[in-house]
Amino acid sequence: MAREAGRPLRADAQRNRDKILAAAVRLFTEEGLDAHFERVAREAGVGTGTLYRNFPTREALIEAAYRNEVARLCDAVPDLLATMPPRDALHAWMRRFLDYVTAKLGMAEALRSVVASGGNPYGESREMIQEALSSLMEAGVAAGDVRSDIRPTDLFAALAGIGLTSAGPDQREQAERLVELTLDGLTPRDR
Fold it and tell me: Which of 69, 95, 134, 169 is the most buried (most CB within 10 A)?
């Protein structure tokens, strides 16, 4: 649960915050820096006062939206592993990674504005993603479904490459094929 000044947010405040972040990702991905605060508030179904109370600046909103996307991606791992076999969980997560990269690329201009203002929206995101991949790959190796000689950093590099070359909305079909190819490459050689 998110905290405000060291205390947990009320349930309704957390819902509003979550709706704001989802709307911000969608709008900054679609419109870049042209997305207006008022439109984000309207899309989230909250007043502009609620938006400004949570995120006093455009940069704060962009950074929080990006960090929230990273957290959602990484926080999905335990549930995926609890509800499906490790290889299927890894595959589902890799597809979510494509969604994350698509949003990140769409938000590139907005994220650059955060960096230009002295912010660091990327702080810890790489480590969080590596940890998520490590959990998925360890489970896959333990189940005998994933090669033990591939490191999470190798898979991250492959996924980042797919993301950089094929994460555009009009390239999703190709990105899916490349994820399948990558997943096939993770299959133990003795199978």
Answer: 69
